[in-house]
């Protein structure tokens, strides 16, 4: 999906009109539609974690592989879906609980900083969502890599890169925030490591760390390649009614286009300097 590169005159008024439409949809939605469905998915992911860890105790290759798959899917459900909803404050109406869920999903589960995740996603990513020619809207922008390394190999490094970038970002926050982030990120990583040793029965630190890497990178490619938006039906209908461009294509078609024009989109495009990455 690609919004137009430049808004016509009166663009701000159109955005305000669109915002009112979106708010109306939210107001008329039931609690189950606003929060229930997503909370149920996240709860099921949490409940499935014990089964995943226990499957890793098995010497049967199929059962062991099932455990890896369960943990990988649950990890990305909690880190991608949970963190996305938490950065938007979409999990609850309570501001206090919204903050708690933000810290849990972003810092404990994802091993990133809550403040920079919110800023990077809400303020930067959505401000430049898929605007071709303005630089990729992904907050993981590495134009120093060639297209094949970025698209196929770099995603595998996300489990290592994410906490390292989080630590680098801490120099821009206060001491209290930095200590909190370090504590919560360490809690999440060590809990995963401890469960593999004491529940899954791994005998060595290297095997446990290797399993952590595999489960945390299992679905890294779709995470890096795909952006999913929930207000999309309202947005697409609004733009078409206003006779404004709204382009939509399949994943494979966008993938081929991005791979073919990678130099234009990721290397030659003007950098968005606040994004997390090597500009």
Descriptive account of the structure:
Helices cover 66% and strands 0% of the residues. The protein is built from 13 helices and no strands. The longest helix is centred in the N-terminal third of the chain and has 27 residues, at 61-87. The chain starts with 10 loop residues before the first helix and ends in a 12-residue tail after the last helix.
Brief summary of the model shown:
With 279 residues, this protein is mainly alpha-helical. 66% of the residues lie in helices and 0% in strands.
Blueprint (SSEs and pairs):
Blueprint: H1 11-28, H2 31-55, H3 61-87, H4 95-109, H5 114-125, H6 147-153, H7 158-169, H8 175-198, H9 205-217, H10 220-225, H11 232-241, H12 251-260, H13 262-267
Helix pairs in contact: 2-3, 3-4, 3-9, 4-8, 8-9
Task: Note the beta-strand portion.
Answer: under 5%
Sheet of most strands: none
Number of strands: 0
Q: State the end-to-end distance.
A: 24 Å
Order of helices and strands: HHHHHHHHHHHHH
Class based on secondary structure composition and strand pairing: mainly alpha
The rough form would be described as globular
> What percent of the residues sit in helical stretches (DSSP H or I)?
55-70%
Overall mean confidence score, pLDDT: 82
Radius of gyration: 20 Å
Runs with pLDDT <50, length 5+? 1-9, 273-279
Can you tag this structure with a few keywords?
single chain; 279 residues; mainly alpha; 13 helices; globular; disordered C terminus
